[in-house]
């Protein structure tokens, strides 16, 4: 698994790791994590998966059995060209997934009838949390209002997460029948927003038009959690006054996966778009004037907002959003409607059968969900279970059933027979289960993209047409500092799409998920062994979500110690933007700590601030090795200072790839850390998600790990949930579990050594050409290399982005640009790249440096040269002689090094005009008229 360089070169002396674990502390040996061969791994995962019971589940609550079209399953979900790509920050080599995400946004805006949708959030419950805070953030500046009214028809797991999210912002969540509660003057006078579920959790469909008017009269926002499939038949939220719509797009072809990952959708009215969290794809144009896509309004990203943030969302659910978008492209508007109508009709048939036996169905309006009053819910549940079916127990005398696309006649026959042998009538006269005022009449998905690819041949070609535009790990190394784009081994990925892992509803009885529980326990134990901590929660479904969870755990702990007043969080200026954003969300005040000119933490500043604020200091957040790519030898001292001030240390584990097996966050002195399983532990980035951000904690924090309203998780004094599902994005945990098991204790350590060695190899090769900004006392970097490019701006007017775009011509995805320092590039090779690939990358960087020399020497003009004009797609290389007005040849532009003649990846557009796109914001598939008007 480690690069081929691994066997050839042992780690040389000279790495001075400040917090190197002693041999006693560093217990990561093969005895602790026994390595498995690929064959053994296969046997073991089959054994584990076999312990999950694959019953049919019609529990609902925002989770369905999805039917994944095989053309999507095989060519997107299981295709490394889609799942290994990175977040599309380099749009010229990401046009494929950007187009697919634009389709996703178009699908969501059309179905919800709102103006702008983002390219996904983490899950429905956290999306509701984001909406609540948006309601607060969009109140007039002087407003002191704080009440968020939540209808009792909203899913309980959403309400649980809302409670958690409300704490940091001082929002008061009131759960009630909204139609009545809105008339309560205490609520009405303090209202920031109202959340309804549409259809409600009991299945009923309520018209919220009047309620919306009242909410607007009160100066608040109307938020609607909804279901995309239902919206093909019922009036869209935007048509009856909702300002924000959200929900899960999972039933568009994404398996339940014991809770996830799934893409949450989120759309808003135009007036709210600049406050919307998450990433937004927009249409702009390239330097040739051709339409081109890129992430819009990037300054909204939390990396930049830091202390002013109201959201910390970074990694989201891009791969799952792409699956859902492709599902809509494949079925088209009439296909989706036919699926919805079939679900509704089968629900009507079931309703007829159950009511014929004298049972009362408590919701007389419905799309796919029936709530039934029964003498004993336990009896009905056990009868359904005898037939291999799970339904929802609402309370002692009510059950509910939610049908979906997967349902077959024998399923509803079996379901009906659980109600004293009810039978499905051979013909039914169905009343209208959707009130006529709520029937959808407006069109949706009329754009050609949703009406052109309904045959498998056409769909397959569309998927491959988009895929060919994107550079992913199948093409080259993606040396993204702080993002650890390592190999996603096929053996670890393969089980992911097995039905034994994919088909489980997150709220099935525990004895049906024994395999999952075994795997989760083993993964938690391994992560504890790796971090040196005592307990773990795998609920957070991104790194930033882990940060938030960890800080909330600290908050709960301090409260339990009578120290609840402590609310200051110290964060180095070099920290990732999600750190201060998460601290803000946890209700903490953020104060910056300086760093020294050599990149190390300014210990004197830390000491002074810890002393000054010792009575109110809650936490210190630190990334180790630092975001500047060095192991600081003061880390243990820094943690000591914080502990002496009575506060807790949060260690951001994004850089754990430099620690595993060599040191660990506990040894460094931390109390809690998050790990990015989508970085260090081989879960692919998916083009911007999914991710998993588990937190590991020291013993004193373990009681406070997050719980869940439906399934027991967390510690003895568990805080409320941070994610919709009890075990977060459970299905992809199998990837990290398998990665750890295959490497074993010693293999993990060797992988870390290789990551360090590879980074130091690059540093040494580039040193004669570029200024390596920070090294430690021994002249070493950690697992990544920060190179300073400021001098080239002064000498040749070249920015970091010019180097990045030119690297695209060499077939590489550029390293992390302008972060953590605006004039730098952060290069992280990981252990997965072999010497040949490292050399190829270094050769490219060195050749670019030569091109820069020509500009500095005046051989090429500062405004018309290889870097400023980069990238050079075929549309440029094929310009006519007259049009080619450049002081260099086409060959130099496209084939600057010999390897490119053999293997060349072509960007598909020239450099994109960000300003144009932001000024003319367009976030849905453009119509022909729009294209004509704007391009
Ligand atoms: C240092 C650091 N911390 C936190 C995060 C946030 O992780 P996520 O994107 O999974 O939310 C990142 C992401 O790149 C990071 O680099």
From TrEMBL:
TM region positions: none
Record flagged with keyword Disulfide bond: no
Family annotation (CDD domains): GDC-P
UniProt-listed SUPFAM superfamilies: PLP-dependent transferases
Keywords: Coiled coil, Mitochondrion, Oxidoreductase, Pyridoxal phosphate, Transit peptide
GO MF entries: glycine binding; glycine dehydrogenase (decarboxylating) activity; pyridoxal phosphate binding
Annotated positions of the N6-(pyridoxal phosphate)lysine modification: 679
Reaction it catalyzes: N(6)-[(R)-lipoyl]-L-lysyl-[glycine-cleavage complex H protein] + glycine + H(+) = N(6)-[(R)-S(8)-aminomethyldihydrolipoyl]-L-lysyl-[glycine-cleavage complex H protein] + CO2
Subcellular location per the Swiss-Prot or TrEMBL entry: Mitochondrion
Main location: mitochondrion
A Gene Ontology term for the protein's cellular component: mitochondrion
Coiled-coil positions: 596-623
Glycine dehydrogenase C-terminal domain mapped to chain residues: 751-872
Cofactor(s) for this UniProt protein: pyridoxal 5'-phosphate
Membrane among keywords: no
Pfam families (UniProt xref): GcvP2_C, GDC-P
Gene3D superfamilies: Aspartate Aminotransferase, domain 1, Type I PLP-dependent aspartate aminotransferase-like (Major domain)
Domain of life according to the entry: Eukaryota
GO biological process, one term: glycine decarboxylation via glycine cleavage system
Enzyme Commission numbers on file: 1.4.4.2
Residue intervals of the Glycine cleavage system P-protein N-terminal domain: 30-418
The family this protein is said to belong to: Belongs to the GcvP family.
Assembly notes: The glycine cleavage system is composed of four proteins: P, T, L and H.
Physiological role: The glycine cleavage system catalyzes the degradation of glycine.
Name this polypeptide is given: Glycine cleavage system P protein
């Amino acid at each position: 698994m480690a690069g081929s360089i691994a066997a050839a070169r042992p780690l040389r002396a000279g790495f001075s790791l400040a917090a190197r674990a002693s041999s006693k502390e560093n217990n990561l040996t093969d005895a602790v994590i026994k390595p498995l061969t690929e064959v053994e791994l296969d046997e073991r995962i089959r054994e584990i998966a076999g312990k999950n019971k694959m019953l049919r589940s019609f529990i609902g609550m925002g989770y369905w059995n999805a039917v994944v079209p095989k053309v999507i399953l095989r060519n997107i979900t299981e295709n490394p060209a889609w799942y290994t790509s990175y977040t599309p920050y380099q749009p010229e080599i990401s046009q494929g997934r950007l187009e697919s995400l634009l389709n996703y946004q178009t699908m969501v805006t059309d179905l919800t009838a709102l103006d702008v949708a983002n390219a996904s959030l983490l899950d429905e419950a956290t999306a509701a949390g984001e909406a609540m805070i948006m309601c607060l953030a969009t109140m007039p500046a002087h407003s002191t209002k704080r009440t968020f009214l939540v209808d009792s028809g909203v899913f309980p797991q959403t309400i649980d997460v809302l409670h958690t999210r409300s704490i940091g912002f001082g929002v008061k969540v009131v759960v009630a029948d909204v139609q009545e509660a809105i008339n309560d003057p205490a609520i009405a006078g303090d209202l920031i927003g109202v959340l309804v579920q549409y259809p409600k959790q009991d299945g009923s469909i309520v018209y919220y038009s009047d309620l919306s008017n009242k909410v607007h009269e009160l100066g608040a926002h109307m938020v609607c959690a909804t279901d995309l499939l239902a919206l093909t038949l019922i009036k869209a939220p935007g048509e009856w006054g909702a300002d924000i719509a959200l929900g899960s797009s999972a039933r568009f072809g994404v398996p339940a996966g014991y809770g996830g990952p799934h893409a949450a959708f989120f759309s808003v009215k135009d007036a709210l778009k600049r406050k919307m969290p998450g990433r937004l794809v927009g249409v702009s144009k390239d330097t040739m004037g051709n339409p081109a896509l890129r992430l819009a309004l990037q300054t909204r990203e939390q990396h930049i907002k830091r202390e002013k943030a109201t959201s910390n969302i970074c990694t989201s659910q891009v791969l799952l959003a792409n699956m859902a978008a492709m599902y809509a492209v494949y079925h088209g508007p009439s296909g989706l409607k036919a699926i919805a109508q079939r679900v509704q009709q089968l629900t009507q048939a079931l309703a007829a059968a159950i009511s014929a036996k004298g049972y009362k169905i408590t919701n007389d309006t419905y799309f796919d969900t029936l709530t039934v009053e029964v003498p004993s819910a336990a009896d009905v549940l056990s009868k359904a279970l005898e037939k291999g079916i799970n339904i929802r127990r609402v309370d002692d005398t009510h059950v509910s059933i939610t049908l979906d696309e997967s349902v077959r006649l024998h399923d509803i026959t079996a379901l009906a027979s659980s109600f004293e042998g009810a039978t499905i009538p051979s013909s039914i006269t169905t009343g209208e289960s959707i009130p006529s005022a709520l029937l959808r009449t407006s069109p949706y998905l009329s754009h050609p993209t949703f009406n052109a690819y309904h045959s498998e041949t056409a769909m397959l070609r569309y998927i491959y047409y988009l895929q060919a535009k994107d550079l992913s790990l199948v093409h080259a190394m993606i040396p993204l500092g702080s993002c650890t784009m390592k190999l996603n081994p096929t053996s670890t990925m393969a089980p992911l799409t097995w039905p034994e892992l994919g088909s489980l509803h997150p709220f099935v009885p525990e004895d049906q998920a024994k395999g999952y529980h075994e795997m989760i326990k083993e993964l938690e134990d391994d992560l504890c062994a790796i971090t040196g901590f005592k307990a773990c929660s795998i609920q957070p479904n991104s790194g930033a979500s882990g940060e938030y969870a960890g800080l909330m755990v600290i908050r709960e702990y301090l409260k339990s110690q009578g120290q609840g007043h402590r609310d200051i969080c110290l964060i180095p200026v070099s920290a990732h933007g999600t750190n201060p954003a998460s601290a803000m969300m946890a209700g903490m005040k953020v104060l910056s700590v300086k760093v020294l000119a050599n990149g190390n933490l300014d210990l004197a500043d830390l000491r002074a601030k810890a002393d000054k604020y010792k009575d109110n200091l809650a936490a210190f957040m630190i990334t180790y090795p630092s975001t500047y790519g060095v192991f600081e030898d003061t880390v243990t001292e820094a943690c000591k200072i914080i502990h002496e001030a009575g506060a807790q240390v949060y260690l951001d584990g994004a850089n754990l790839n430099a620690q595993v097996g060599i040191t660990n966050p506990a040894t460094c002195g931390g109390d809690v850390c998050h790990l990015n399983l989508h970085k260090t532990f081989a879960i692919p980035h998916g083009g911007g998600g999914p991710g998993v951000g588990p937190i590991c904690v020291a013993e004193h924090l373990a009681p406070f790990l997050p719980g869940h309203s439906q399934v027991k998780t967390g510690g003895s004094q568990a805080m409320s949930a941070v994610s919709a599902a009890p075990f977060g994005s459970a299905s992809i945990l199998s990837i990290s579990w398998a990665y750890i098991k295959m490497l074993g204790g010693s293999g993990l350590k060797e992988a870390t050594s290789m990551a360090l060695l590879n980074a130091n190899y690059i540093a040494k090769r580039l040193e004669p050409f570029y200024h390596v900004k920070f090294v430690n006392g021994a002249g070493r970097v950690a697992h990544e290399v920060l190179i300073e490019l400021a001098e080239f701006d002064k000498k040749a007017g070249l920015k970091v982005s010019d180097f990045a775009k030119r690297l695209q011509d060499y077939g590489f995805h550029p390293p992390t640009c302008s972060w953590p320092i605006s004039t730098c590039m952060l290069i992280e090779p990981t252990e997965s790249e072999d010497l040949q690939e490292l050399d190829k990358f270094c050769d490219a960087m060195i050749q670019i440096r030569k091109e820069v020399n020509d500009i500095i020497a005046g051989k090429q003009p500062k405004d018309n040269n290889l870097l400023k004009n980069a990238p050079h797609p075929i549309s440029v290389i094929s310009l006519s002689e007259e049009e080619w007005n450049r002081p260099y040849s086409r060959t130099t532009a496209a084939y600057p090094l010999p390897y490119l003649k053999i293997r060349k990846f072509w960007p598909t557009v020239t450099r994109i005009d960000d300003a144009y796109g932001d000024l003319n914001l367009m976030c849905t598939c453009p119509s022909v008229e729009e294209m004509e008007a704007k391009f």
